[in-house]
From TrEMBL:
<dbReference type="Pfam" id="PF02357">
    <property type="entry name" value="NusG"/>
</dbReference>
<dbReference type="InterPro" id="IPR043425">
    <property type="entry name" value="NusG-like"/>
</dbReference>
<protein>
    <submittedName>
        <fullName>Transcription/translation regulatory transformer protein RfaH</fullName>
    </submittedName>
</protein>
<dbReference type="GO" id="GO:0031564">
    <property type="term" value="P:transcription antitermination"/>
</dbReference>
<keyword id="KW-0804">Transcription</keyword>
<keyword id="KW-0889">Transcription antitermination</keyword>
<dbReference type="InterPro" id="IPR008991">
    <property type="entry name" value="Translation_prot_SH3-like_sf"/>
</dbReference>
<keyword id="KW-0805">Transcription regulation</keyword>
<dbReference type="GO" id="GO:0006354">
    <property type="term" value="P:DNA-templated transcription elongation"/>
</dbReference>
<dbReference type="GO" id="GO:0005829">
    <property type="term" value="C:cytosol"/>
</dbReference>
<dbReference type="InterPro" id="IPR006645">
    <property type="entry name" value="NGN-like_dom"/>
</dbReference>
<dbReference type="InterPro" id="IPR010215">
    <property type="entry name" value="Transcription_antiterm_RfaH"/>
</dbReference>
<feature type="domain" description="NusG-like N-terminal">
    <location>
        <begin position="3"/>
        <end position="102"/>
    </location>
</feature>
<dbReference type="InterPro" id="IPR036735">
    <property type="entry name" value="NGN_dom_sf"/>
</dbReference>
Amino acid sequence: MSDYKWYVVQSKPGQTDKAAQELCNQGFEVFLPLVRTVKLQRGKRIELTEPLFAGYLFIELSELSSNWRPIRSTRGVARIISFGNQPAVVPDGVIEQLRDNLRHQAELQAMEPNQTVRITEGPFANLNAVFTEFDGEKRAFLMLELLGQWQRLSLPLSALKKAD
């Protein structure tokens, strides 16, 4: 079993990307979960890619073989999150779940109009529908054929997956 574990690094304000890049340049395994968001700026909708946890990133380190010293003096890094004198360990399962969720979200955000999707939750679970457009950041409008007629409905993105 590997003695490598995931830890949380807090970055200096506005320097999360810089901290991640500098730690990668030093050879550390870094995970900075990013999400696409839509925001209004000067009355226009723009798409941005932002850290999921503003000001934080994850780093994989070994208690035995990793050199922890350069981390504190890395540009953009404020500190490693600790409880008492012990750095806080993030379970591997949490990191894997974050990666899976972000992959799924990226798949869904790449959907095109008229694409077939499968509903995975709720009363319409296991039925196929046709994606028409996004309904905000976390929902989508779909067309579903019920009783010989097309019905328009809005469902959360978490209840959809691309049809095979």
